[in-house]
Amino acid sequence: MEQLEAWCRWYTPTFEIEPLRSKQDGFPASNRSWSVDGLAVSRVRSPPTSVWRSKTNIRKSPVDHWAITLSKSRTSSVEVGDTSLDVPAGAPFVLSVGEELRVHRTEDDDRLVLLLSRDRFSRIAHLLDAVKATILPASQGRFLADYMLVLERNLPNLSAMDVARFPNAVEAMLAACLVPSADRLDSARHQIELTLMERVRQAVRRNLRSPSLGPDKLCRETAMSRSQLYRVLESEGGAAHYIQRRRLSESFSILCDASNTHPIARIAEALCFADASSFTRAFRQEFGMTPRQVRAASLAGQAPMAAKTGGGGDLLHGF
């Protein structure tokens, strides 16, 4: 009960919140946000709710930001004026907080929200207004969704030096996603490459233990051509090399888990290596130590850390 009251106070007076589940069940919810120069990115988890913004809310809190929302696993029922639509999970949608609106979510939800100040993002105002309260075409919607996931993944690693460039990078990518043109695609080229790389990363993660994982499967799952996939993974040494490195990274994590007692040969087989000896050779080449040495260090409470690649600065290259 106290959690629900705190949640409602957090959003008052901008929004009204109505829980759609018995208050006796509690209200476990969380909101983690990053904010800089007219742009906020929030990761929100909440039980079923109805959220609305009425004329009274608009008078009390006259903000008119745009909100771009991506629900990861649930359908959102949206009402704006005479428009009603059910937005499927994985499809981002744009709303103006300057208008009366209502959003229903009848199940537990995990979502990302971009809040954009009209003053800061005035150059793309007409693009956002043109698509508000609509379901974006599939290709544009998927690309924008993938980019929002890139933001979520990289924001925690963003350095203080990069923060000032962050809104410009987001603005360029939103313009390219919402209304693609040659100039906009060129301006957002690096952001697009990062988004395609995120698409590949997710596909590899889903299929890491599948023996059929290879360039053909990646092309199908990421909706890329072979030439696109080659360009995206060129700096990684190609698809086969990237897949092997991800499998080796996964094996490193498994071996650092002292509670995991599976034989090394079984771990190698599960991650699609031909045999234990080829796995050990590749592992030593990647990490400078053998699987047995990593496991022994883990059991002694001294498990080494695998080197991290990339960082938040990649998100802003070219800005």
Automatic annotation (TrEMBL):
<dbReference type="GO" id="GO:0043565">
    <property type="term" value="F:sequence-specific DNA binding"/>
</dbReference>
<dbReference type="InterPro" id="IPR050204">
    <property type="entry name" value="AraC_XylS_family_regulators"/>
</dbReference>
<protein>
    <submittedName>
        <fullName>AraC family transcriptional regulator</fullName>
    </submittedName>
</protein>
<keyword id="KW-0805">Transcription regulation</keyword>
<feature type="domain" description="HTH araC/xylS-type">
    <location>
        <begin position="198"/>
        <end position="297"/>
    </location>
</feature>
<keyword id="KW-0804">Transcription</keyword>
<keyword id="KW-0238">DNA-binding</keyword>
<dbReference type="Pfam" id="PF12833">
    <property type="entry name" value="HTH_18"/>
</dbReference>
<dbReference type="InterPro" id="IPR018060">
    <property type="entry name" value="HTH_AraC"/>
</dbReference>
<dbReference type="GO" id="GO:0003700">
    <property type="term" value="F:DNA-binding transcription factor activity"/>
</dbReference>
<dbReference type="InterPro" id="IPR009057">
    <property type="entry name" value="Homeodomain-like_sf"/>
</dbReference>
